[in-house]
Protein 1
Amino acid sequence: MSEDEEGRMSLASGRSVLITGGLGALGGPCCAALVEAGGRVVVNDILPEQSVPPAELDRLAGYIARDAETAEAADEIVERAAELAGGLTDVVLLAGRVHSAPLLEQTPADVRDVFALNVERAFATAQAAVRRWSALGQPGNLVFVGSWVADVPWPGVGPYAASKAALRAMARSFAREFAPIGIRANVLAPGIVDAGMARKQWDTEPDYRRRAGRAIPLGRLQPVESVASSLLFLCSDLSSYMTGATLLVDGGASLYPLDPEETS
């Protein structure tokens, strides 16, 4: 084993991490990276526990099937996560939703649904974590999972892009207000990830594949492992002097548009 591999295996040693939305296509590799690096990981998602493959549960410190739709529910999720993991050092707000459609086909209900999960539930869970850390006099680390589209008007996901811009502003507010008591907050902003909806659209929608293929200077969809590695960095001592920052890991997608055809 190389020194780099040995170092990575201990990056999350001593960390107790709650990840919301951890059963998704992106959540699985992120959880695996943290566990392999020595972290104790608790996942919060909405699938009933009996629906989760046993192999998935075995690697975790715990699983909480609960929707953080109220402040009370968020408090209970955070407290239960701390109980299962033997403490709580990091909270990763990964749960999210996208509704893909042209702006004139998006309804107010679509916008509300996207903001309810991407912003409101993230806020409630972060708030619950900060209350716990503050009451115990402990430091803490919040990682909000945003997106490159917070800055780029990518066609078809207007409400999603707006929700991620709101999430970044909220993360920076947490960072500003709670830095004096040792609580940090940063944003991880991936690009067009080779998983979930993006992978499906890449495979089934020629227009999407054409646009996405030109929009990524590195020329390929983002490997989920690059997102997991970036999250591991933010949940380790390597990022201990970061707060209020956005770690943009997008293969250059935010440089879009790249050619005259896209600007005409």
Protein 2
Amino acid sequence: MFAKVSPSSFSLNLALQGGGAHGAFTWGVLDALLEDGRFGFEGISGTSAGAMNAVALAHGWLLGGAEGAREALSNFWEGVALSGPREVVPPIIDPTTPMPGMNWMLQLTRWFSPYQLNPLDLNPLRDLVEAQFDFERLRHASPFKLFIAATHANSGHLKLFRNADLSADALLASACLPTLHHAIIIEGEPYWDGAYAANPAVFPLFRFCDSRDILIVMLAPLHHERTPRGADEIQERAAQLAFTNAFMREMRLLAAMREMASESGWLSGSLEARLRSTRFHLIEAEAVLGGLTAASKSVANQAFLHRLRDAGRSHARRWLAEHAEAVGHRASLDLQATFLPA
């Protein structure tokens, strides 16, 4: 059974990007949408931190509707803040900076694999998701259609875990950074972070959902202000592009197909009609996250996560004020101009 939407409201599909601790921005966005209460949800596609947010939203809604979802999201991210290593350090002046121990660990991953650094495959995130989410209930009674993306480590193929496939392993596979964690083995197959194949996958919302409104919550910047020159900066930018390339390709393809469908006129098939009727919306975090380093994705201190949550709430409220009335009627995102510029 999926979420029911009252006749006076509209249903949104959600596409939630990954980005480690930056996913707390999406926490804030979802919290504001839930507080506003005008929209229900049908399908949610998520990768990495986006997948965590998707499952928290579904789990909480299953237990207590919108308020239950807000509580579950808060519990998860507060749990993330508590699950990090406790270090004896001076008071943090800049909460966006990883603690010394985390910096040291990130440096070590350049020369040693997680199989060497963490042979026992200890993962505090596993303890957190197993404690907080009831995967058995979600498999049978999720209120939303969930699409959790992971990447098959030996082929690069996208693996979508849907409602019947939900498990702690499936969720951890979506967030498995291969430099930090062992590959997640599911039914004998190894999986890495879903961002290599889709960040997030948008086509399932187009293909498997009835709602024609898709809201993308984007954490990666669409544009970078400067070209990197230092070795570390170049490596960081290359990693950022690797995590967004699949999403950008998918969006460019959808934009091109939509443009072709619009040019074909009304005498066309069901695919063209569906492309024309799909309405895209966007909440993006470039102004908040664009100036942060990749290392800040590993920062799990409470002050930083709350700062991002509050920024997400502010952005979502602004979007609601400017575009909420468009849902169900028209797109608030120009797909061609954003992803297929001339």
Protein 3
Amino acid sequence: MITTKKTALVYCQDQFGLVDGKTAAALVRHSEIYIVVGIIDSSLAGQDAGEELGLGKIDIPIFSDLDAALSNLLDIPDCYIYGKAPLEACISSEERLLILEAMEKGMDIVNGLHQFFSEDQEFVNIAAQNNVQIKDVRKSPNLKDLHVFTGQISEVSVPVIAILGTDCACGKMTTAVDLNKALNNLGIRSVLIATGQTSLMQGAMYGVSIDALISQFVIGEIENSIVQAFERERPDIILIEGQSAVGHPAFMSSLGILKGGMPNGIILQHPPARRFRCDFPSLPMPTVESEIRLIESISDSKVMAITLNHEDLTDEDIFNTIEKYEALFQLPTTDVLIHGCQKLIQTLSSHFPKLNQKIKQQELARVSALEASFI
């Protein structure tokens, strides 16, 4: 089914390209739901969003404020997306006024915060007056629609791979999305299970924002999402987007992924140059070795590859880190934003014979089609 994408203006004041601006950055990189037509961040006004993310010029301008955006865009966007993921529980008074103004201009509001705009009476009233919608992406399903763990995950007969990490906002989702696209482009039926608000905004068909759930249902919701994807899509492989880190003292999401997903393998994302945990300057980063040891000591899952976040690294640093990690851990290591997903696909192929057979069949079919085109 083909659906028309909605145009979107993404608010990311003072955070675009930084860790708390990961929602905005992710939507610029990929979305099956929205066409991003602009970013609001006065600290980068006049720049191109793609160039700020190292993607090259992609003609998505960054504006100083809402008025500047609406003055320069040809049409009022369909949606106004709150594109930051801060630790703070509530938006500021300035941000509140912008949301009200966006609704008055006729824009739907898409919100990924724990603060639910659809339960704010002023927002609800203004939305009704202007015939616009408010979508709280992180809002939990109704209690009657939630699931507890059942053990049905044992009936899933295709590889389930979790992309975990050593920290928050280190590129787990980006690696998961890119690997999912690469596999599907090869003709391998891959389904991505979303576990956070941003990947749901990007258009993932299965999953839930697990940090918004009552803890009783986290494991069951992950299991249920995987089982649904397996039964409905008949995929060759299922990928689970990771959250936070198993060893992170502030969050428990990764434990739920390990328990509810019972993954057949782990890809571990790591930012080698990061000294302290994101948003926690008093907490030193763990080592790759300690995170692998922790994951493998509390689950039956094994880490099968390492992926890098190249923040604050030069090209030489990346090359040297890849060589170092492959020698030290005897695990394939890559940076998917720079080198693509080929090494990960080769790793998956070598671990799972049925997947390897499917990949070879697809490659043979493409070669045959190419040869036929020359006859």
